[in-house]
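Input protein
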Amino acid sequence: MSDYILLMHNDESSESTSLDWDSYLARLRSAEVFQGGSAIGAGECMRRAGPVPTISKHIVGFIRIEARDLDHVRELLIGNPVFESGGTVEVRELPRTD
């Protein structure tokens, strides 16, 4: 099993409700793949020197899951309110460094 982060973009065509999120997160918990998540609020990019890039305003939340592979992640996207409403969910593997 590998760890993945699902980055929710704010480009869905219809809004999801908290009920949608409650049932989706309950499904991930019952499958024992949910490892956390949160909405993402305002912030800024920072760096010690040089030009500072503009913050990515289209990423509004994340969920961390454990999955066998990307095919398993695709299965786990079913019911995700952003995905189901036509929005983008960016999937990134979190490589183990130990």
Remarks:
- The chain has a mean pLDDT of 92.
- The two ends are 15 Å apart (CA to CA).
- DSSP finds three helices and four strands in the chain.
- Residues 18-30 form the longest helix (13 residues).
